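User: Predict the complex.
Assistant: Input components as received:
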Amino acid sequence: MIEMDFGWIEWPTMVLKGKGKYKYKDLPIWIGRAEAEAIVPKKQSVKVPQSRAYDLLCRVIAGVGGKVNGVVIDEVRDNPPELGAEYDLILLGSLMFKLRDNTVLARLLIAVGEKHIEVDCRPSDGIAVAIRANAPILVNESVLDESGILTRGIPYPPPSL
Amino acid sequence: MANIEMTIESIRVNQVSHRRVVVLKERERERYLDISIEPTEVDAIVVKVQPFKMARPLTHDLICAVIGVFGGKVNGVVIDEVRGDTFFAKLMVANKDGVMQFPCSPSDGMGLAIRTKAPIFVESSILDMFGLFGPGDTNPYSSKE
Protein backbone atom coordinates (compact mmCIF):
# COMPACT_ATOMS: atom_id res chain seq x y z
CA MET A 1 0.00 0.00 0.00
CA ILE A 2 1.27 3.44 -0.93
CA GLU A 3 -0.12 6.60 0.54
CA MET A 4 -0.91 9.20 -2.07
CA ASP A 5 -1.90 12.83 -1.91
CA PHE A 6 -4.85 14.38 -3.61
CA GLY A 7 -3.39 16.22 -6.59
CA TRP A 8 -5.94 18.12 -8.58
CA ILE A 9 -9.13 17.68 -10.51
CA GLU A 10 -9.33 18.24 -14.16
CA TRP A 11 -12.76 16.93 -14.80
CA PRO A 12 -13.44 14.17 -15.93
CA THR A 13 -10.30 12.99 -14.19
CA MET A 14 -8.97 13.29 -10.69
CA VAL A 15 -5.25 12.96 -10.18
CA LEU A 16 -3.56 11.50 -7.14
CA LYS A 17 0.07 12.36 -6.60
CA GLY A 18 2.61 9.94 -5.28
CA LYS A 19 5.13 10.83 -2.65
CA GLY A 20 8.49 9.52 -1.46
CA LYS A 21 9.68 6.72 -3.70
CA TYR A 22 6.72 7.28 -6.00
CA LYS A 23 7.27 11.01 -6.27
CA TYR A 24 7.10 10.97 -10.03
CA LYS A 25 4.03 8.82 -10.34
CA ASP A 26 0.53 10.20 -10.74
CA LEU A 27 -2.65 8.20 -10.78
CA PRO A 28 -5.51 9.56 -12.85
CA ILE A 29 -9.01 8.29 -12.10
CA TRP A 30 -12.26 8.94 -13.93
CA ILE A 31 -14.77 10.67 -11.72
CA GLY A 32 -18.25 12.04 -12.15
CA ARG A 33 -19.17 15.69 -12.27
CA ALA A 34 -21.02 15.63 -8.96
CA GLU A 35 -18.12 13.91 -7.23
CA ALA A 36 -15.72 16.52 -8.59
CA GLU A 37 -17.97 19.29 -7.36
CA ALA A 38 -18.10 17.68 -3.95
CA ILE A 39 -14.33 17.46 -3.63
CA VAL A 40 -13.15 20.79 -5.06
CA PRO A 41 -14.89 23.09 -2.55
CA LYS A 42 -13.40 21.05 0.31
CA LYS A 43 -9.89 21.53 -1.01
CA GLN A 44 -10.38 25.23 -1.65
CA SER A 45 -12.32 25.96 1.55
CA VAL A 46 -15.24 27.36 -0.39
CA LYS A 47 -18.51 27.37 1.49
CA VAL A 48 -21.34 25.71 -0.38
CA PRO A 49 -24.88 26.47 0.74
CA GLN A 50 -26.27 22.99 1.14
CA SER A 51 -24.67 19.86 2.45
CA ARG A 52 -23.98 17.07 0.02
CA ALA A 53 -24.36 13.36 0.36
CA TYR A 54 -20.77 13.07 1.66
CA ASP A 55 -21.43 15.44 4.52
CA LEU A 56 -24.41 13.29 5.41
CA LEU A 57 -22.24 10.19 5.24
CA CYS A 58 -19.61 11.78 7.51
CA ARG A 59 -22.35 12.81 9.93
CA VAL A 60 -23.76 9.28 9.95
CA ILE A 61 -20.32 7.79 10.62
CA ALA A 62 -19.66 10.30 13.41
CA GLY A 63 -23.19 9.77 14.77
CA VAL A 64 -22.58 6.08 15.40
CA GLY A 65 -19.16 6.79 16.92
CA GLY A 66 -17.14 5.66 13.92
CA LYS A 67 -13.98 7.10 12.47
CA VAL A 68 -12.80 7.05 8.87
CA ASN A 69 -9.40 5.38 8.81
CA GLY A 70 -8.79 5.86 5.12
CA VAL A 71 -9.66 4.69 1.68
CA VAL A 72 -7.89 1.91 -0.19
CA ILE A 73 -7.84 1.82 -3.98
CA ASP A 74 -7.48 -1.85 -4.60
CA GLU A 75 -7.78 -3.03 -8.09
CA VAL A 76 -8.36 -1.95 -11.67
CA ARG A 77 -10.57 -4.14 -13.74
CA ASP A 78 -10.66 -3.60 -17.47
CA ASN A 79 -14.16 -3.66 -18.86
CA PRO A 80 -14.78 -5.79 -21.92
CA PRO A 81 -14.54 -3.50 -24.94
CA GLU A 82 -17.89 -2.55 -26.38
CA LEU A 83 -18.44 -2.68 -30.11
CA GLY A 84 -17.52 0.66 -31.60
CA ALA A 85 -16.20 2.06 -28.35
CA GLU A 86 -12.91 3.84 -28.60
CA TYR A 87 -10.44 4.73 -25.96
CA ASP A 88 -10.38 8.37 -25.04
CA LEU A 89 -7.29 10.42 -25.28
CA ILE A 90 -7.09 12.80 -22.41
CA LEU A 91 -4.91 15.87 -22.21
CA LEU A 92 -3.82 16.36 -18.66
CA GLY A 93 -1.58 19.32 -18.10
CA SER A 94 1.10 18.78 -20.68
CA LEU A 95 0.61 15.05 -20.85
CA MET A 96 -1.51 13.23 -23.37
CA PHE A 97 -2.43 9.74 -22.34
CA LYS A 98 -4.91 7.02 -22.93
CA LEU A 99 -7.67 6.55 -20.44
CA ARG A 100 -8.89 3.00 -20.41
CA ASP A 101 -12.47 1.95 -19.96
CA ASN A 102 -12.12 0.34 -16.60
CA THR A 103 -13.60 -0.04 -13.19
CA VAL A 104 -11.57 0.87 -10.15
CA LEU A 105 -12.46 -0.92 -6.96
CA ALA A 106 -12.00 0.80 -3.65
CA ARG A 107 -13.00 0.30 -0.07
CA LEU A 108 -13.60 2.69 2.75
CA LEU A 109 -12.01 1.78 6.08
CA ILE A 110 -14.03 2.68 9.14
CA ALA A 111 -13.21 1.96 12.76
CA VAL A 112 -15.82 1.75 15.50
CA GLY A 113 -14.18 1.20 18.84
CA GLU A 114 -12.08 -1.93 18.36
CA LYS A 115 -13.95 -3.06 15.29
CA HIS A 116 -12.63 -2.37 11.80
CA ILE A 117 -15.12 -2.29 8.99
CA GLU A 118 -14.55 -2.16 5.24
CA VAL A 119 -17.22 -0.98 2.84
CA ASP A 120 -17.08 -1.35 -0.93
CA CYS A 121 -17.18 2.02 -2.69
CA ARG A 122 -16.11 3.97 -5.73
CA PRO A 123 -12.72 5.72 -5.48
CA SER A 124 -14.34 9.14 -5.89
CA ASP A 125 -16.74 8.50 -3.02
CA GLY A 126 -13.98 7.13 -0.83
CA ILE A 127 -11.64 10.02 -1.56
CA ALA A 128 -14.38 12.61 -0.99
CA VAL A 129 -15.00 11.10 2.45
CA ALA A 130 -11.28 10.69 3.23
CA ILE A 131 -10.63 14.34 2.42
CA ARG A 132 -13.46 15.41 4.71
CA ALA A 133 -12.10 13.21 7.49
CA ASN A 134 -8.41 14.05 6.88
CA ALA A 135 -7.79 10.35 6.41
CA PRO A 136 -5.07 8.85 4.21
CA ILE A 137 -5.64 7.76 0.62
CA LEU A 138 -3.92 4.40 0.10
CA VAL A 139 -3.27 2.84 -3.28
CA ASN A 140 -2.33 -0.73 -3.99
CA GLU A 141 1.05 -0.95 -5.73
CA SER A 142 -0.34 -3.05 -8.57
CA VAL A 143 -2.81 -0.27 -9.40
CA LEU A 144 -0.05 2.28 -9.55
CA ASP A 145 2.12 0.00 -11.69
CA GLU A 146 -0.76 -0.63 -14.05
CA SER A 147 -2.44 2.75 -14.30
CA GLY A 148 0.03 5.23 -12.89
CA ILE A 149 1.64 7.69 -15.26
CA LEU A 150 5.20 8.85 -15.01
CA THR A 151 5.30 12.62 -14.68
CA ARG A 152 9.08 13.06 -14.48
CA GLY A 153 8.51 15.77 -11.96
CA ILE A 154 6.63 18.14 -14.22
CA PRO A 155 4.86 20.46 -11.82
CA TYR A 156 1.21 20.87 -12.51
CA PRO A 157 -0.66 23.13 -12.16
CA PRO A 158 2.13 25.64 -12.86
CA PRO A 159 3.01 27.73 -9.80
CA SER A 160 1.85 30.90 -11.55
CA LEU A 161 -1.76 29.70 -11.64
CA MET B 1 -46.90 19.43 13.68
CA ALA B 2 -48.07 16.43 11.82
CA ASN B 3 -45.91 14.66 9.28
CA ILE B 4 -47.72 13.47 6.20
CA GLU B 5 -46.51 10.41 4.32
CA MET B 6 -45.74 10.96 0.66
CA THR B 7 -44.96 8.72 -2.30
CA ILE B 8 -42.70 9.56 -5.23
CA GLU B 9 -45.27 10.14 -7.96
CA SER B 10 -42.95 10.96 -10.82
CA ILE B 11 -39.67 12.53 -11.80
CA ARG B 12 -39.97 15.20 -14.46
CA VAL B 13 -37.97 17.82 -16.28
CA ASN B 14 -39.05 21.44 -16.09
CA GLN B 15 -39.55 22.47 -19.72
CA VAL B 16 -38.47 26.04 -19.04
CA SER B 17 -35.48 25.74 -16.74
CA HIS B 18 -34.58 22.12 -17.58
CA ARG B 19 -34.23 21.40 -13.92
CA ARG B 20 -35.21 17.99 -12.66
CA VAL B 21 -38.29 17.93 -10.48
CA VAL B 22 -39.36 15.16 -8.15
CA VAL B 23 -43.12 15.18 -7.67
CA LEU B 24 -44.26 13.81 -4.35
CA LYS B 25 -47.88 12.84 -3.86
CA GLU B 26 -49.67 12.59 -0.58
CA ARG B 27 -50.59 9.00 0.10
CA GLU B 28 -54.11 9.76 1.29
CA ARG B 29 -55.01 12.74 -0.87
CA GLU B 30 -54.36 14.16 -4.27
CA ARG B 31 -52.03 16.86 -3.11
CA TYR B 32 -48.56 17.20 -4.60
CA LEU B 33 -45.27 18.77 -3.68
CA ASP B 34 -42.68 19.39 -6.34
CA ILE B 35 -39.03 19.60 -5.35
CA SER B 36 -36.48 20.74 -7.87
CA ILE B 37 -33.16 18.90 -7.47
CA GLU B 38 -29.78 18.45 -9.10
CA PRO B 39 -29.58 16.14 -12.16
CA THR B 40 -26.97 13.91 -10.52
CA GLU B 41 -29.07 13.48 -7.41
CA VAL B 42 -32.02 12.62 -9.61
CA ASP B 43 -29.97 9.90 -11.26
CA ALA B 44 -29.42 8.31 -7.89
CA ILE B 45 -33.21 8.13 -7.43
CA VAL B 46 -34.05 7.12 -11.00
CA VAL B 47 -31.74 4.08 -10.97
CA LYS B 48 -33.88 2.75 -8.15
CA VAL B 49 -37.28 3.76 -9.55
CA GLN B 50 -36.48 1.98 -12.79
CA PRO B 51 -34.72 -1.38 -12.91
CA PHE B 52 -31.21 -0.21 -13.79
CA LYS B 53 -28.16 -2.18 -12.77
CA MET B 54 -25.16 -0.14 -11.75
CA ALA B 55 -21.66 -1.59 -12.01
CA ARG B 56 -20.49 0.13 -8.85
CA PRO B 57 -22.29 1.39 -5.76
CA LEU B 58 -23.36 5.02 -5.95
CA THR B 59 -22.85 7.38 -3.04
CA HIS B 60 -26.28 6.61 -1.63
CA ASP B 61 -25.58 2.88 -1.83
CA LEU B 62 -22.42 3.54 0.16
CA ILE B 63 -24.36 5.44 2.81
CA CYS B 64 -26.88 2.59 3.02
CA ALA B 65 -24.05 0.08 3.34
CA VAL B 66 -22.40 2.12 6.10
CA ILE B 67 -25.70 2.42 7.99
CA GLY B 68 -26.18 -1.32 7.51
CA VAL B 69 -22.79 -2.40 8.85
CA PHE B 70 -23.33 -0.27 11.94
CA GLY B 71 -26.56 -2.16 12.57
CA GLY B 72 -28.71 0.84 11.79
CA LYS B 73 -31.92 1.08 9.86
CA VAL B 74 -33.35 4.04 7.99
CA ASN B 75 -36.70 4.78 9.63
CA GLY B 76 -37.68 7.50 7.24
CA VAL B 77 -36.95 10.95 5.99
CA VAL B 78 -38.85 14.08 6.99
CA ILE B 79 -38.83 17.21 4.86
CA ASP B 80 -39.47 19.68 7.64
CA GLU B 81 -37.91 23.02 6.91
CA VAL B 82 -37.91 25.69 4.23
CA ARG B 83 -35.44 28.54 4.06
CA GLY B 84 -36.03 30.86 1.15
CA ASP B 85 -37.08 28.36 -1.48
CA THR B 86 -34.76 25.58 -0.37
CA PHE B 87 -36.15 22.55 1.39
CA PHE B 88 -34.26 20.85 4.20
CA ALA B 89 -34.81 17.37 5.50
CA LYS B 90 -33.89 15.09 8.34
CA LEU B 91 -32.87 11.47 8.02
CA MET B 92 -33.99 9.24 10.87
CA VAL B 93 -31.73 6.28 11.57
CA ALA B 94 -32.62 3.77 14.26
CA ASN B 95 -30.12 1.50 15.93
CA LYS B 96 -30.09 -0.33 19.24
CA ASP B 97 -29.38 2.90 21.13
CA GLY B 98 -32.40 4.70 19.75
CA VAL B 99 -33.32 6.96 16.87
CA MET B 100 -30.79 9.47 15.55
CA GLN B 101 -31.57 12.39 13.31
CA PHE B 102 -29.19 13.68 10.68
CA PRO B 103 -29.84 16.85 8.71
CA CYS B 104 -29.70 16.18 4.97
CA SER B 105 -30.98 17.50 1.70
CA PRO B 106 -34.34 16.20 0.45
CA SER B 107 -32.66 14.61 -2.56
CA ASP B 108 -30.26 12.61 -0.38
CA GLY B 109 -33.11 11.70 1.94
CA MET B 110 -35.26 10.48 -0.93
CA GLY B 111 -32.33 8.59 -2.45
CA LEU B 112 -31.84 6.73 0.81
CA ALA B 113 -35.54 6.23 1.48
CA ILE B 114 -36.08 4.62 -1.92
CA ARG B 115 -33.15 2.26 -1.35
CA THR B 116 -34.30 1.18 2.07
CA LYS B 117 -38.03 1.31 1.26
CA ALA B 118 -38.46 3.78 4.10
CA PRO B 119 -41.33 6.26 4.13
CA ILE B 120 -40.95 9.88 3.05
CA PHE B 121 -42.75 12.45 5.19
CA VAL B 122 -43.42 16.13 4.66
CA GLU B 123 -44.49 18.41 7.44
CA SER B 124 -48.08 19.56 7.00
CA SER B 125 -47.26 23.26 7.24
CA ILE B 126 -44.93 22.92 4.24
CA LEU B 127 -47.63 21.15 2.27
CA ASP B 128 -50.12 23.87 3.21
CA MET B 129 -47.73 26.45 1.87
CA PHE B 130 -46.24 24.71 -1.20
CA GLY B 131 -48.69 21.89 -1.95
CA LEU B 132 -50.40 21.70 -5.32
CA PHE B 133 -53.88 20.26 -5.71
CA GLY B 134 -54.73 17.66 -8.29
CA PRO B 135 -58.16 17.50 -9.99
CA GLY B 136 -59.41 14.92 -7.50
CA ASP B 137 -58.77 17.12 -4.52
CA THR B 138 -60.44 20.26 -3.35
CA ASN B 139 -58.47 23.34 -2.60
CA PRO B 140 -59.87 24.88 0.57
CA TYR B 141 -58.63 28.28 -0.58
CA SER B 142 -60.15 28.08 -4.04
CA SER B 143 -62.66 30.82 -4.84
CA LYS B 144 -64.86 28.44 -6.87
CA GLU B 145 -66.35 26.69 -3.87
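Residues 39-49 of chain B form the longest helix (11 residues).
Let me know if you want any component modeled separately.
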